[in-house]
């Protein structure tokens, strides 16, 4: 396999975005390559195509497996593991959003809830308590919405996504 300029551009951009998402650039580039590749790739091929050290690729693959974004496949007659990204884009987005929710959003929601509870008894002025409460209530509302939508069957979720902002045409108070 050779990388075309478009493939390189995609991989480089995914790597740049990865650093903004809190993921190491080379880890994001590995994921981008596996995402594009129609066939599972061994680590050696990944390292060669991306110009990365084999040890860096191994570390990146372990991280991606921890995120459940990459799976390992075995082939008869080949001792090497072959890696592939989650193929279904809906599953891929769900894994990323769900993982970020668990690692980032839920701990923040819990911290705000704890802060609100302490603020009720530690002399925090009412104006501050109200602002903390508003923060918690809004965050909890979004989190509950997310959990409710995740319980819907996939076809319903896809229909909601396709409907998108068009739903506003059906709601009262539209401008």
From TrEMBL:
Gene Ontology MF: a single term: DNA binding
Sequence ranges assigned to domain HTH marR-type in this UniProt record: 22-80
Pfam families referenced in this protein's UniProt entry, alphabetically: MarR_2
Keywords annotated in UniProt: DNA-binding, Transcription, Transcription regulation
Signal peptide: none
Record-linked InterPro entries: HTH-GbsR_regulator, HTH_MarR-typ, MJ1563, WH-like_DNA-bd_sf, WH_DNA-bd_sf
rRNA processing found in the keyword field: no
Similarity annotation: Belongs to the GbsR family.
Protein name in the entry: HTH-type transcriptional regulator
């Amino acid at each position: 396999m050779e990388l075309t300029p478009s493939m390189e551009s995609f991989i480089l951009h995914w790597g740049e975005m990865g650093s903004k998402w809190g993921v190491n650039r080379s880890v994001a580039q590995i994921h981008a390559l596996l995402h594009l590749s129609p066939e599972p790739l061994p680590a050696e091929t990944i390292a060669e195509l991306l110009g990365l050290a084999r040890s860096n690729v191994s570390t990146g693959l372990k991280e991606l497996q921890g995120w459940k974004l990459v799976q390992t496949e075995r082939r008869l007659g080949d001792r090497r593991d072959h890696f592939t990204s989650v193929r279904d884009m809906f599953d891929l987005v769900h894994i990323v959003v769900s993982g970020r929710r668990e690692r980032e959003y839920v701990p923040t929601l819990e911290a705000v809830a704890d802060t609100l509870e302490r603020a009720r008894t530690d002399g925090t002025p009412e104006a501050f308590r109200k602002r903390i409460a508003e923060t918690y209530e809004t965050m909890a509302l979004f989190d509950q919405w997310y959990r409710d939508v995740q319980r819907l069957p996939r076809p319903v979720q896809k229909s909601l996504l396709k409907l998108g902002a068009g739903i506003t045409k059906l709601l009262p108070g539209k401008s």
